[in-house]
Input
Amino acid sequence: MVSSDAAQLKKMHFDWLILDEAQNIKNVSAQRTKAIKKLNSNYRLALSGTPIENNLTELWSIMDFLMPGYLGSLKSFKDRYLKPEDDHEARQALHRLSSPFLLRRVKKEVLLELPDKQEQISWCEMSPIQEKLYLQILDTVQKKLMPGAPEEMSYVHILAALTKLRQVCNHPHLANSDALPVPELSAKLEMLVELVQDAISAGHKILVFSQFVQMLQIIRKVFDDLAISYSYLDGKTRDRAEQVKAFESNDDIRLFLISLKTGGTGLNLTAADTVILYDPWWNPMVENQAIDRTHRIGQTRKVQVFRLITKASVEEKILSLQQNKIELFNEVIEGGTGILKSMSLEELKSLFSY
Output
């Protein structure tokens, strides 16, 4: 709305300009970001649970909205705080500069009545067909990455290969249409079915998140065959509100299948008390926001979170990268895909080494 009404809004002068979900202006070159920063006001306030999702330039953009120029130009900021990436002294200096203007509150400090949240990693073995396909793709990529290889892999091709490996971890059908979309070919899908059936039998409601809509379609078919009712939400779902209402109010619907990018924010789903992250995302903040669809005000039961991770795969590498992102956030804010774009070509290549 801001982008389309930018000219009209720019003529107005606001007393307060309050920006909710301020991480949405993290892209400094986006038209929305530029339009918002041109608005006139006496005071500005930015609200965000994740001011840093991928890299420090996102924090710069929010601070540039609040106090233009306070952290210098984007170029000087990058030179000072992003080069080298592991400069802890620079991060501490940035914390000292920004902390007087940041007020951070975590849920356990302000929502004393909020039930506990328990998270666990559920490790999955690959099925024989998964392992065979995974190793074929990995072998092809590793040969192309060897020094002196006749065909050098570009950044784009490496990202495509990573996606293929992640798809195989979910179900071989995503990377090879010859593989039938049935549970027996994916150990992870079999684990999901078992977790969902056990949770429903115990009286729980469950949220299942995946980044791959094609995977959600396979999951839908499986639960259709099992006669398990569910709500469903991805980017093409038109009756979004109806799907949410049905899950929240209908006791017969105990499962909600959700695209992470579509339903990871903006939903209140406290009827659920179980969350299953079917595949790991590079950014842990995105996953945490998905979990917070149910672990929030209004929740009266303990929330159980399952992260399904395939052993000896790129998914283990993603877990390691997630921890690096958490450490960056804690160091700068608390003093203690984006992620792919911020990685060098050599760092990307390391994801294929085992």
Summary: The longest strand covers residues 117-124. The mean pLDDT is 88. The radius of gyration is 22 Å.
